[in-house]
Design a protein that fits this description.
single chain; 10 helices
Length: 281
């Protein structure tokens, strides 16, 4: 083993060979900045369009409605939708000392690359190394302070962003995976489960989104797609099944209005289904 290939140990207690220790310096900086955060949850999906950002947003808001102090971090650099879903488009970022302050939303502290874009339709064209550096800054250089929970919305797949977050947060509580009822979605989510297994990253459970359609007139639920793929996947991999969320026009209305549906339509069947999922966490 050469001098530059020493074995290093990071705050998680893990060690690796063949690096200069920079990865562990990054992990240590993140660990120290997040000492006041009690719980950290990653929201993942193997496929786009399954409602992952909707789940992330409403999970964070639901926790905040219970009186919790919550952080919501959006690391979906190519499609940052959190500012729109919370009505925070155009918000300015401010600093305090050497730290960046997250944008407040009731009991939430929110951070997204979308706050730095001059226009929301501006494309972000970054390679992997830059993405890792920005994620490290969002975790280590943002003044998150004392939080009961930090929810992190990641882009779909098993690429740079999910990998960087998992590597920088080895002591996180775990990942929440979002799928839709179709087998093609569940197959992609199984790749995310394998990804997490290889990283020895814990899984909190699976949510089956868009599971049935709620009629806005009578409230009856109709199964538009097949059902049960999320629960079958959870059983296959031995992880918790957190529950189902139906298709509901009010979800779209809330997101477009910049007000999460668990807040705007708290009495709806979908909001109640989400609250049941949160209770399991």
């Amino acid at each position: 083993m050469s001098e530059n290939q020493e074995k290093h140990t990071c705050p998680s207690g893990k060690s690796c060979e063949g690096c200069s220790g920079k990865c562990h310096d990054d992990t240590r900086a993140v660990h120290e900045n997040l000492l006041g955060v009690k719980h950290i949850y990653l929201v993942l999906s193997g496929k786009g369009g399954v409602g992952k950002s909707t789940v992330s947003t409403n999970l964070a808001v639901s926790l905040s409605l219970q009186g919790k102090q919550v952080g919501l971090l959006d690391v979906d650099f190519h499609g940052p939708s959190i500012p729109k879903m919370l009505g925070l488009e155009g918000s300015q970022l401010y600093g305090e000392g050497e730290k960046l302050l997250p944008v407040p939303y009731d009991n939430l502290k929110v951070m997204s690359i979308g706050f730095t874009l001059p226009e929301m339709d501006r494309a972000v064209i970054w390679r992997g190394a830059m993405k890792h550096g920005i994620i490290k800054q969002l975790l280590a250089d943002v003044l998150w302070g004392d939080l009961d929970a930090l929810v992190i919305d990641t882009p779909p797949g098993t690429g740079d962003e999910p990998l960087s977050v998992c590597q920088l947060l080895p002591n996180a509580d775990g990942a929440i995976l979002v799928t839709t009822p179709q087998q093609v979605s569940a197959t992609d989510v199984s790749k995310s489960l394998n990804f997490l297994s290889q990283l020895h990253f814990p899984v909190k459970g699976i949510i089956e989104n868009m599971s049935g359609f709620v009629c806005p007139h009578c409230g009856e639920v109709t199964q538009i797609f097949s059902s049960g793929a999320g629960e079958e996947l959870a059983e296959k991999y031995g992880v918790p099944f957190l529950g189902r969320l139906p298709i509901d026009p009010q979800i779209c209305a809330g997101g477009d209005a910049g007000e999460p549906f668990v807040q705007r339509y708290a009495s709806s069947a979908t909001a109640k289904a989400f609250e049941a999922i949160v209770e399991k966490l």
